[in-house]
Amino acid sequence: MRSIKNIRLKHYDYSQNGYYFVTICSSYQRPYLEEFSREIRTALDELKGIEGINIDYYSILPLHIHMIIILQESKLGLGEIVRRFKSLTSKEAGIRLWQPNYYEHVIRNEKALLKIRE
After folding, report:
1. Over the chain, what is the mean pLDDT?
2. What gap in Å lies between CA 85 and CA 101, rounded to an integer?
3. Could you report how far apart the first and last alpha carbons of the chain are, in Å?
């Protein structure tokens, strides 16, 4: 059985306050995310309702979604937030929407944030 490579920064606390740029790819690169955009938006709204979590920006594309997630005194780490999002959307859609992992980038300054928002 093939293992999933850990691509997270070692010794970094992904529950600390900050801005995180997250990309999640569709399962097997199937181009159906726009078809399930209602379910995705509903799950994003549910995440916004959790204390300490804000979705600054998102873009739903056929093969993946980009999000900027802001953590402010959140009790959940980034991994748990992404897990909940993937679970909610897959359950609503009735199919496995996402690949097992996700890509993240810690946004360290205002210049980087503005560039990513573009």
Report:
1. 90
2. 12
3. 40
- pLDDT tier, 12 (very low <50, low <70, confident <90, very high otherwise): confident
* Separation in Å, CA 53 to CA 66, 93, 95, 107, 114: 16, 23, 26, 15, 19
What is residue 13's three-state secondary structure? coil
DSSP one-letter code for 94: T
Chain-centroid distance, C-alpha 106: 12
Angle, CA of 16, 78 and 83, to the nearest 5°: 160
- Model pLDDT, residue 36: 95
Question: Cα-Cα-Cα-Cα dihedral of 36, 68, 3, 97, to 10°?
Answer: 0
pLDDT, tens digit, 9 for 90 and up, residues 28-53: 999 989 999 999 999 999 999 999 99
β-bridge mates for residue 25, sequence order: 64
Tokens of 13: 């606390």
The SS3 call for residue 12 is coil
CA dist., res. 22 & res. 2, Å (int): 24
